[in-house]
Amino acid sequence: MEILKTIRLKKYFPLSKSFLGKGSYVRAVDGVDISIGKGEVFGLVGESGCGKTTLGRLIVRLEEPTEGRIIFEGREVTKLTGKEIKWFRRKVQMIFQNPYTSFDPRYTIFDSVAEPLKIHKLSSSREELEELVIKALEEVGLVPAQDMLKRYPHELSGGQLQRASIARALLLKPDFLVADEPTSMLDASLRAGILNLLKRLNEERGMSVVLITHDIAAARYITKRMAVMYLGKMVEIGGTLKIIKNPLHPYTRALMASVLSPDPTGPMEEVAIKGEPRPVLEPKGCRFHPRCPYAMDRCRSEEPPLAEVEAGHRVACWLYAKG
Amino acid sequence: MSLLRVEDLSVSYVTERGELKALSEVFLELNEGEILGVLGESGSGKSTLAYSVLRMLPPNAKVIKGRVVFEGKDLLRLSEEELSKIRGKRLTLIPQNSMNALSPVHKIGDQLADVLVKHEGLSKREALKVVKEKLRIAKLSEDVTNRYFHELSGGMRQRVMTAMSLLTDPKLIIADEPTTGLDVIVQYQLLRELKSLQRKLGFSMMIISHDVSVIAKISGFVMVLYGGKVLECGDVISVFKGPKSPYTQLLLASFPDISSPIEKITEIPGSPPDLIEPPEGCIFHPRCPYATDRCRSEEPPLVKVGEGHYARCHLLEGG
To answer: How far apart are CA A177 and CA A198, in angstroms?
Structure first.
């Protein structure tokens, strides 16, 4: 069962006129179709500038799309009004990369975590509010929860604060959580805890999770399906393990070959791609062709469609075009 | 021949709440041509160690005791004049990837050439020749000399920093999180290039990182720091294949590895220690699943657990 889908979703950010002349845009998200199932953990993987964060922000409606549609539980997200918006804001939550900037430094943990309950009028008394907050903090492993209530964000470690941000998101019992690089600011010893927590919440509550990350190992650990993005486009989508074991798109192959393993004995093979992506001057044809070791004439003129190569595994690359 | 020896080094920071013990009684020895990886999380003291060696600590830092002996001289006790003959010349730094490591208003070639004009007394023309050569070594084209730092991509900026660190043919390069913040593919390529440069040119390197994989791939020797203390050190294969201190064991197990089967990754409960009021006994005991009463009261020494492999844990003593 599908919970959310996007149809040819686009987000262009205009650039100032002095830079590269009039009418230039950064095509942060440029025609993305994805479908996410109820209870699924889905990975959105790519390097900085690929548009994965913008896509996440579009999904939760922190950004308005330039074009395209977002359907959540059968309803058109951009056309929601009044009460429906409130419903959507409850059902869909997001957690961010930097927990220190997603809390007001002058609010105690209790004030911050209880805020959504107050906005949505989900509690009738101070006692009930406190009880709900304590329960949520306990659920994410912030114990003793009573001690946390009166503390301020700077008194918590990054890992603790990220847990508090998850507790805040969970209080509204969302069906859908977008987690944008939730572990990339955290130390290794705290990272595992957050990943295990997301995994458990998905299993216990059946909550759908979109994990946005550049960390392939993290995606492998908690997602079943993932999409790889490059300069605003999806270049490959399919089963996480399948893509990691047998990446098809030349970009995905380079990405997988570049993942460092914590093994001191293995060699470091050469990764045969050049340069870095240039988000503004995206080329004609396939966006990856200037860096691609397999680029052919067709790649320079015509953009490859995202085509199914085998069941559930789609790739945007002329190397796999049939006929 | 030992190139760098750090002996019994303790460094504290003066803060409003009191003295923060960033580094406690650290020993290390680095020979010519070796790469030492210093692995630690935030607050482990890894950067304090690096900047102590460079004598570039912030003003509120205080060296409590210890020596930093580089090529036979204690850097902590040299005059500024003597220090300037070594630092930036025999001993250089690759700083953490950042936008403002170089000035945005001067051309890269001029800024790099200035180093040689100042340190080596070269003419501007001679200096630019060397700069171009080093840029080539760091896989950049010569015309980077005419560009400005902010025009370059993150990967190219880091390559400029590598070229700059090589200008004076140093004996030791300190690399502070040299690939942190870079994208996966660029990070991989830079690390691979750094390793091959080191092999070709033979300098020693001390690389500071929080990333277990980076340390695994580049170092010959590794030192694991936690709360300002060395909890384990040895050659990289012994430490990674047979970690002895519970902290190293847990840290390695908390790292999802894409080349091995998916297992549940272990979390280390709790948070890093408060170094203003550090725990009694072993610094890791509040988070250690094996902690006993002894660990809570008595600090364990570093004990030998293998050839050149040391770890700090009561469980490893006398048996």
So the answer is: 10
The alpha carbons of chain B give a radius of gyration, in whole angstroms, of 21
Q: Is B105 on the interface with A (CB under 8 A)?
A: no
Q: CA-CA distance, A296 to A271, in Å (whole number)?
A: 19
> What token pair was written down for B77?
């006790």
Q: Can you name the residues that pair with B69 across neighbouring β-strands?
A: B5, B74
Q: How much is the average pLDDT of B304-315?
A: 96
> Which of B39, B267, B276 should be substituted to probe chain A, the one whose Cβ sees the most A Cβ atoms within 10 Å?
B267
A263 has pLDDT over 70: yes
Q: Which amino acid is at A18?
A: S
pLDDT tens digit string along B187-218?
Answer: 999 999 999 999 999 999 999 999 999 999 99
pTM of the predicted protein model: 0.91
B240 touches chain A (CB under 8 A): yes
Pairwise CA distance, residues A232 & A28, whole Å: 5
| A270 CB burial (10 A radius; 0-12, 13-18, 19+) | exposed
Q: What is the pLDDT of residues B146-179, one digit of tens each?
A: 999 998 988 899 999 999 999 999 999 999 999 8
Helix axes A188-205, B246-253, angle to 10 degrees: 50
Length of chain B as a residue count: 319
Residue contact A160–B271, C-beta within 8 A: yes
Tell if the CB–CB gap between A259 and B184 is shorter than 8 Å: yes
- The Cα of A82 is separated from the nearest Cα of chain B by a number of Å equal to 41
> What are A305's two structure tokens?
């469609």
Q: Report CB contact under 8 Å: B188, A271.
A: yes
B252/A160 CB distance under 8 A: no
Q: Is A250 helix (H, G, I), strand (E, B) or coil?
A: helix
Whether residues B184 and A270 touch (CB distance < 8 A) is answered with no
Does the pLDDT at position B1 exceed 80? no
- Tokens 């048996």 label which residue? B319
Phi-psi region of A123 (alpha: psi -120 to 50; beta: other; left: phi over 0): beta
Q: Is the dihedral of CA A9, A323, A225, B216 positive or negative?
A: negative
B155 touches chain A (CB under 8 A): yes
B-chain residues near A261 (CB < 8 A): 213, 216, 257-260
- Cβ distance of A188 and B267 shorter than 8 Å: no
Summarised one tens digit per residue, pLDDT across range A35-62 is 999 999 999 999 888 999 999 999 999 9
Q: Which residue of B has its CA nearest to A215?
A: B184
- DSSP assignment of A211-276, as one string? EEES-HHHHHHH-SEEEEEETTEEEEEEEHHHHHHS--SHHHHHHHHT---S-SSS--------S-
